[in-house]
Design goal:
This protein is mainly α. The chain has one domain. The protein has 3 helices and no strands. It is elongated. The termini are far apart.
């Protein structure tokens, strides 16, 4: 495991300390879990983009027209 120094906003640090006390997890465990979740979400977004990047794109106005024609809006 690597060591890093993070500068947190006071309110974030206080919330992290309180959550650490309530959950009996270390602040490092909580920070690691939160960072993993955020990075995983980014990875999922990139994978979705790669799957869909060859799809035809339409303008916002075209989308609104299609939704209107389909009586979605």
């Amino acid at each position: 495991m690597s060591k890093a120094t993070l500068y947190l906003e006071e309110s974030v640090h206080k919330a992290l300390r309180l959550k650490s006390a309530v959950t009996r997890q270390s602040m490092s465990e909580l920070a690691n879990d939160a960072l993993k979740a955020a990075l995983l979400e980014d990875l999922e977004d990139i994978e979705d983009w790669n799957k869909r990047r060859k799809e035809k794109t339409i303008s916002y106005d075209e989308l609104l027209s299609q939704l209107g024609a389909d009586r979605t809006i």
